[in-house]
Amino acid sequence: MSPDDWHLTEDVGAFLARARTFLRLRPALHTLPLTVTDTLRTRGADAYGADTPVLGLLERAGEVRAVFFRTPPRRLTLTPLNPGETDSLAACLAGLGHQLPGVHADQDTAASFARAWQRHTGAVPTLQERQRLYRLGTLTPPEPLPEGRGRVAGEEDRERLMLWHREFVTDVGGTPAAGDSSWADTRIADQRVMLWETPDGTPVSMAGRTLMVAGQIRVAPVYTPAPLRGRGYAGAATAAVSWAASAAGASEVVLFADLANPTSNGLYRRIGYRPVADFAAYDF
Questions:
Q1: Which burial class, exposed, middle or buried, applies to 175 when counting CB atoms under 10 A from its CB (0-12, 13-18, 19+)?
Q2: Can you give the pLDDT at residue 179?
Q3: What is the pLDDT of residue 176?
Q4: Which of 8, 200, 209, 214 could form a disulfide with 27 if both were Cys (CB 3.0 to 4.6 A apart)?
Q5: Are strands 216-223 and 203-209 parallel, antiparallel or unpaired?
Q6: pLDDT of 82-122, one tens digit each?
Q7: pTM of structure
């Protein structure tokens, strides 16, 4: 394959005009490119920061075979590629002078691209995280449920959502955007965060969800403050938001879990989630 087989663009509309059908063929496996490009389409190119996103696709015989995207400063995200395709993409991006902090993809593609990037740039890859993508089968709420109830987060929860989102980003190794209220504001407006609260009305856990794209909704993030963990609150919140996603008409409800956390993986399986594929993230 040649690096010239890859077509790069900063135009989300042009990208989706060519890639939409391909992405919608496998909505669960393509959950990240579907939701990120839809956000760029609806909220603008600065939805994830001031730097311009980069999108690309691989076409053969007039059909899209693979895509990638990057919203700086985040990692490159890829759909499944074979070794020849990862090598040609690495050569293409390196030749254009792209500086990549890392890559995220299904585990075989991520490992192959990491090796190719090292060959072309000398950058040494480090495995940072292994994840499992799950898809909801039959929802089975945890038994027993902790005392309390689930409810949709509202404007009165704005400060709490901002705080919990910053803590969540820190927990997963990201860099929080201090003072950024847009995450909380958009999710409150769209009613996309469920809180689990104790009988006295105190919120103790949250579970969010993406907007529906191609009939698919992804549950993210799930967060319980450290002092409150181990009491079943995350399972209750996840079950509540999963039910809400199904009730909204989603034909597929998916989520990612860190494979280094057996507790969360066990929880998701118990409430009805089934494995789809394993993913990996490498930093360069």
A1: exposed
A2: 54
A3: 72
A4: 214
A5: antiparallel
A6: 999 999 999 999 999 999 999 999 999 999 999 999 999 99
A7: 0.94
CB 151: neighbour CB atoms within 10 A?
15
The two tokens of residue 130 are: 């292994």
Quick one: pLDDT at residue 3? 72
Residues 6 or more apart in contact with residue 239 via CB below 8 angstroms:
139, 141, 142, 150, 271
